[in-house]
Amino acid sequence: MSCFDCATDSHGPILATIPTSRGTHRFGGPVFNPVPRVFRPVTALTAVPIFSETKGTPMTDYAFVPYHHERLPEGEMLTRARRFYEDMNRRRSIRHFSADPVPRELIELAIRTAGTAPSGANRQPWHFVAMSEPSIKREIRIAAEKEERESYEGGRMPPDWLDALAPLGTSWQKPYLEIVPWIVVVFAELHGVNPDGSKRKNYYVQESVGIACGLFITALHNMGLCTLTHTPSPMGFLSRILERPENEKPYILFPVGYPAGDAVVPDIKRKSLEDYITFRG
Question: Residue 57 has what pLDDT?
Answer without folding.
Answer: 67
